[in-house]
Specification:
With 430 residues, this protein is of the alpha/beta class. Helix content is 35%, strand content 16%. It folds into 2 domains: 206 residues, P-loop containing nucleotide triphosphate hydrolases (Rossmann fold), CATH 3.40.50.300; 209 residues, P-loop containing nucleotide triphosphate hydrolases (Rossmann fold), CATH 3.40.50.300. The chain contains 15 helices and 15 strands. The strands form 2 sheets. The protein has an 8-stranded parallel β-sheet, with helices on both faces. Strand 3, helix 5 and strand 4 form a beta-alpha-beta unit. The protein starts with 10 loop residues before the first helix and ends in a 38-residue tail after the last strand. It binds adenosine monophosphate. The site of adenosine monophosphate has 17 residues, from helix 3.
Length: 430
């Protein structure tokens, strides 16, 4: 018996969820599943890593399974929109997992790959389609997909879709779906433009908020390392000498920078994958697979590629370059410390990036501790006036830590720990 049983989800769903090792619903699941099962519209403010995918996927599967509606040719009964192909893929993978014993028909559609496979998949109709806005409209305009049978419309990472300029596409798509429908929208923030969109698309929504706007997950230990630009690569190689840095996601500002960092790591004997906008879909998929499977210890990415990466056990996120957008920082470091496990986010900051750091600290409403205990620390950057950051030596717990880069913070252990809602149920074969 798990706490999920109290939510009255169909048995085949409960079975799949139990096999995943979920025992207790996460806070967003505890609050969103019931209203969604009741057919209500909802606006969910939640970061990735909170379990929001299952929060909308489980009630969606339940409603589709218990209703007698059939799929229609070239149609879908539920549409989930996501900003990037990585996220669309990730959502689809989750849905397939929870759908294992229901066997509803699902499909995923995004650009950058051949459209013909997607067309044939949609030909006989599906129950759930996960898609990015551009490819979805392509399919619709080519007459390969009708949206007039959609019963449930879900927008994931709506804030990101707006940031990426998808507002007109989202409006067009919404207009193609019957107004008699259930709509759910998820966003990491409730920015003004998100509010505006919610007012247009949702009907008396239930609001479910599990984390205040732009807060970082408390399970992520954050540190900033002051380092001159030209020493960043050496610092990175030095950090990776620590075995506690088991699986690391590294962010750079540019594609060129990503390539250079990856080359440097490879030269230092670290198997490294790269994902950025110049990589083809299959190259990106191969890199994520290698990283997920443990063949690559490091993955270097630009922001474009960061959203949909759901790889368990990322012990460290390293901001090789600090992002100029505080929101990007929040999303980047959200790749570790997922599902309540602990993780470490290390940010390199050169003199030009100090303004970014200040901005980030203002947004996340906390100071990021400085980690000085490494050979490339720059006092000059640290002592530059006007930087209101707390100073602390080593990895915490007082004094110099011999393993300042390991997880755990405050002298704790370096293995990611399980959150309270994951206890007792190891995920899969773990
Ligand atoms: P999400 O925020 O949807 O990207 O989910 C983050 C991670 O949490 C994924 O790896 C999920 O498999 C996992 N997860 C979601 N719900 C639960 C749960 N109730 N118990 C344990 N793990 C979960």
């Amino acid at each position: 018996m798990t706490d999920f049983e109290g939510l009255y989800l169909a048995q085949p769903i409960l079975r799949a969820v139990a096999e995943e090792g979920y025992t207790t619903p996460t806070p967003i699941q505890a609050r969103a599943i019931a209203p969604l099962m009741d057919g209500k519209d909802i606006i969910g403010i939640a970061q990735t890593g909170t379990g929001k995918t299952a929060a909308f996927a489980l009630p969606l599967l339940h409603r589709l399974a218990v209703s007698a509606q059939q799929t229609k040719k070239r149609s879908t009964r539920a549409l989930i929109l996501a900003p990037t192909r990585e996220l669309a893929n990730q959502i689809h993978v989750c849905i397939k997992t929870y759908n294992k014993y229901l066997r509803l028909k699902t499909a995923v559609a995004y650009g950058g790959v051949s459209i013909s496979g997607q067309i044939s998949k949609l030909h006989h109709g599906v129950d759930i389609l996960v898609a990015t806005p551009g490819r979805l409209l392509d399919l619709e305009r080519q007459g390969c997909l009708r949206l007039d049978w959609v019963e449930t419309f879900i927008l994931d990472e709506a804030d990101r879709m707006l940031d990426m300029g998808f507002a007109p596409d989202m409006k067009t798509i919404s207009d193609l779906i019957p107004s008699q429908r259930q709509t759910a929208m998820f966003s990491a923030t409730m920015a003004q433009n998100v509010k505006g969109l919610a007012e247009k698309l949702l009907n008396h929504p239930v609001k479910v908020e599990v984390a205040p706007v732009a807060t970082t997950a408390s399970t992520v230990k954050q540190r900033v390392l002051f380092v001159e630009k030209e020493k960043k690569r050496s610092l990175l190689a030095h950090l990776l000498e620590d075995k506690a840095v088991e699986r690391v996601l590294i962010f750079t500002r540019s594609k060129f920078g990503a390539d250079a960092v990856a080359r440097h790591l490879e030269r230092n004997g670290v198997n490294t994958g790269i994902i950025h906008g110049n990589k083809t879909q299959s190259q990106r998929e191969r890199a994520i697979k290698g990283f997920k499977g443990g063949r690559m210890r490091a993955l270097v990415a630009t922001d474009v590629a960061s959203r949909g990466i759901d790889v368990d056990g990322i012990t460290h996120v390293i901001n090789f370059d600090l992002p100029n957008e505080p929101d990007s920082y929040v999303h980047r470091i959200g790749r570790t410390g997922r599902a309540g496990a602990s993780g470490t986010a290390l940010s390199f900051c050169d003199i030009e990036e100090k303004a970014f750091l200040l901005d980030i600290q203002k947004t996340i409403r906390q100071d990021v501790e400085v980690l000085e205990d490494h050979p490339f620390h720059s006092d000059k950057i640290a002592n530059d006036p006007g930087l209101p950051v707390k100073k602390k030596r080593g990895g915490g717990g007082g004094g110099r830590s011999r393993r300042p880069y390991g997880g755990g913070g405050g002298g704790g252990n370096s293995r990611p720990s399980k959150p309270h809602w994951k206890k007792g149920g190891a995920k899969k074969a773990a």
